[in-house]
Amino acid sequence: MGNKAITERDKDFAQWYTDVVRAAKLCDYSSVKGCMVIEPNGYAIWEKMQEILDKKFKELGHVNVAMPVFIPENLLKKEGELVQGFAPEVAWVTQGGSKDLEERLAFRPTSETLFCDYYKDHISSYRDLPKLYNQWCNVVRWEKETRPFLRSREFWWQEGHTIHATEEEAKKETDQMMEVYRWFHHEILAIPSVTGVKTEKEKFAGAEYTLTNEALMYNGVALQSGTSHYFGQKFAKAYDVKFLNKDNKQEYVYQTSWGTTTRMIGGLIMVHSDDYGLVLPPRIAPKQVVIIPIGDDEKVDKLCNEYKDKLSRAGIDCYIDNTDKSPGFKFAEAEVNGIPVRIEVGARDLAENKITVARRDTREKLTTEADTDIVTYVKVLLDTIQRDMYDRAKERRDKLTFEAHNLEDMERILNTQPGFIHAMWCGDEACENRIKEIKGCKSRCIVEDGERIDDKCVCCGKEAKHHVIWGIQY
RNA sequence: CGGGAAGUAGCACAGCUUGGUAGUGCACUAGUUUUGGGAACUAGGGGUCGCAGGUUCAAAUCCUGUCUUCCCGACCA
């Protein structure tokens, strides 16, 4: 049983995902491959993500700016590694409106180059540093295979770009922003992600190192969900971003960038949702409570309005479903849309001074007194749902977390049930390539200060250097 | 970018083999009765059949190309 428009999750996970996206009206396809129309329900989640993250960024001293969508070819090509890394997926604009362009323009795949080009003329002294900039924008990467939210050719994100006077300060920024992403996933999205360092092979093109936040979906496939890069002086040298330090000497700046995208919406679905549709953790749900009046009754309407006023004043996002649909329709709709708490008010219950409250995550129906302290009741319930959702996701993640000591272990696990696989690694890229031959399994991240679960590399058997988490990714 | 499937009303599909007035269900609109898990009746509205060529007196139907979507692989936030 489940929503009639949704394929069962355990039957066909990919189709289930697409069905939930459509049934909850999060986004629709457009006439351009891989470009989506984010519908009100989906955009409201993105707005909530922006609201929470933006507040956090600003508390940490960042300011927002807006850069152009276009990057001239020459500018993009100044940093060799970045160009190489992104070349296959850059979209080029080759025709202007009236006259031929002198050179091609790239639609930004990421904006390091634009920020550098700007910074170089606006920095002269260590007193001008740091610059802690962020922008909320769209970028384009011409992907071959596309999937709503998880991989689209155009996606929305925030990209933070900072420059600092010292290596130490820039590295601290890189760590700090990864911690923000970790906090956001655990505390707000109720997703028990893991964080660590990307291997040389998997790091961002042009970075000295990349920190990553990795989430595990219900089906055991990993999703990179937030990265923070330390660039050192690589871009600064390519783009000539210099400042006069305290010793009155020219020095290149130390740079970072960090980003999270609309992909997180896909992650939310794939971690928490079920056969009845979307399930949202209360802290990220645009609407936390829906009040559904049953029957045409003056007392019922009055109580609904009273609840709404009280809850709204307490800062809880709620609304009354006053449409003339049947109660059953409203229940099902609230469910497919993932509203965490549903309050059902009807004359039958009210005669006994009762109301019914349903929680979306477990689909449990609870009964309480109509004259209960509704604000406290709902607040406690929302907190409980948030915590329970995290606990269930963590339980699932732990169930899908394995340990491998040799290639046979790896193969057995990946052929049975993919997940996070902990294994030791010698540090040789050849071993990464060998492991990738097993169902495309890649290193997710190196666990910093990870315990040594073996002395030998899982692949070649030589001395192990790092504790790495491996997995199949979206 | 390779392999497979599919595009006909907002959605799900029939019609195509054998060319000849574009259909069904849900959704939508109006009215009435309803309302505790996707209400009922009555009356309505909506489609250059993905797009572009071609064959033909005539194309949703046959041919060619192209775009898009889904699934499976290679590349990626």
Give the strand order of the largest sheet, numbering strands 1, 2, ... along the chain: 3-7-8-14-11-10-9
- Give the integer mean of the pLDDT values: 92
CATH level 1 name of the largest domain: Alpha Beta
Helix segment tally: 14
Level of helix content?
Answer: 25-40%
What is the terminal-to-terminal distance? 28 Å
Name of the CATH superfamily of the largest domain: Bira Bifunctional Protein, Domain 2
Helix/sheet category = alpha+beta
Report the CATH topology name of the largest domain: BirA Bifunctional Protein, domain 2
Would you mind describing this structure in some detail?
This protein has 474 residues and is α+β, with helices and mostly antiparallel strands. It has 3 domains: 13-272, Bira Bifunctional Protein, Domain 2 (BirA Bifunctional Protein, domain 2, 2-Layer Sandwich), CATH 3.30.930.10; 289-381, Anticodon-binding domain (Rossmann fold, 3-Layer(aba) Sandwich); 401-471, Translation Initiation Factor IF3 (2-Layer Sandwich). 34% of the residues lie in helices and 26% in strands. It has helices at residues 13-23, 40-59, 73-76, 80-86, 112-119, 167-188, 234-239, 263-272, 298-313, 327-336, 347-350, 374-399, 407-416, 429-436, and strands at residues 27-29, 36-38, 63-64, 70-72, 91-93, 105-107, 131-140, 154-164, 194-197, 209-216, 222-232, 242-244, 250-252, 254-261, 289-294, 318-320, 341-346, 354-359, 365-369, 401-403, 420-425, 442-446, 466-471. The strands form 6 sheets. A 7-stranded mixed β-sheet has the order 3-7-8-14-11-10-9. It is globular, with a radius of gyration of 25 Å. The relative contact order is 0.11. It binds one RNA strand of 77 nucleotides through residues 3-5, 12, 14-15, 18, 22, 29-33, 88-89, 110, 139, 141, 143-146, 150-151, 155, 157, 204, 223-227, 259-263, 294-296, 324-333, 335, 344, 346-349, 356, 440, 473-474.
